[in-house]
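Record type: monomer structure entry
Structure origin: computed from sequence
Chain ID: A
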Amino acid sequence: MGQQLINPALDIGALRSAFQAHGRVTISDVLKPDFAGAVHACLAGDEVPWRLAYYRHDAEGPATVGRLTPAQRAELGEAGVAALEARVRKEATEKFQYLYEAYDVLKARREGRDPGLYLQQFLNFLGSDELFGFVEEVSGDTEFNRVDCHACRYRAGHFLREHADRSLFENRHMAYVFYFTPDWHLDFGGLTTFQDETGRILDCLPPGFNSLTLFRVPVLHSVTQVADFAPHPRHSITGWFTRYD
């Protein structure tokens, strides 16, 4: 993957000014169309072995990240999965919780799983000098040296409650979300919202296609619940630029 994959027509100066003013920026048409289309085709196809993601309040440390594999879902059966989702939604009325489908691309590479999946090509792009240089130019941050990669699929009823992306386990500098969701209307939900400590919404972004939101952390944000009449899932790839010494 030696060719340039970021849209060369982007106005870096304007993007940098927006990021410095607000601590975040959303960039439309960020990737070359063929590359964005290939990533979307992979996310929307049948190859990704999605895991149902939720927060485990009965666990500690990294184990709080719940991931139900396809095999585990089959073992639980429809009734068991429905009961799990009902518990998650009940917990969400009082405390932090989330529910969506996830695929950890970086972990899959480390474990030698799914090498032919096109998302591995996207991971190569994330770790490239091209992307690191682009993010450094836009953000002014040159201290990060690693990036991770999680593909996400939000179906009807899925959500991510308010959180700030703080972590005790890694030094997170910035978060990113690449959106690969065409033909989406804000009425379908799945909106990324940024809010202050009083609950006032500062920004509200519908998922689009071939766009990137880059933002400093910690900052309060959430993903609103996807409506039951949404015509297809909300697809994105997200993660953090971090520092490891």
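Annotation 1: Residues 70-92 form the longest helix (23 residues).
Annotation 2: The mean pLDDT is 96.
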